[in-house]
Design brief:
Order of helices and strands: EEEHEEE
Oligomer: single chain
Number of domains: 1
Strand order of the largest sheet: 3-4-5-6
Radius of gyration: 14 Å
Shape: globular
CATH superfamily: Folate-binding superfamily
CATH topology: Folate-binding fold
Bound molecules: zinc ion
Number of strands: 6
Length: 89
């Protein structure tokens, strides 16, 4: 069982969260001309990394906020969590 430290609610069971995908993907700038390749990369193309990765999760059975979780995709160890609008260095 994984436990995720929600920045809003504290430590909770992973059962209260829903995985939301790769948090490192940047949306193309609004009102900027975007090539088909750039749009495909934003919408569809993802790297399947092994190791430390930044992910989006939603606390669906709690505060319902989206958060960022730094997690190892091989061991499932969770290193840090952030509010969705926090910049991660
Ligand atoms: Zn929460």
């Amino acid at each position: 069982m994984l436990y995720i430290n929600c920045p809003h609610c504290g430590m909770r069971s992973q059962n209260e969260f829903s995985y939301g995908g790769d948090a490192s993907v940047k949306r193309p700038e609004l009102n900027k001309e975007v090539s088909d390749e750039e749009w495909d990369n934003f919408v569809y193309n993802r790297k399947s990394l092994r190791g430390k990765h930044l992910e989006l999760w939603q606390h669906i059975s709690g505060c319902r906020q989206w958060i960022k979780v730094e997690r190892d995709t091989a061991t499932h160890a969770i290193f840090r969590t952030f509010k969705a609008d926090e910049e991660v260095a």
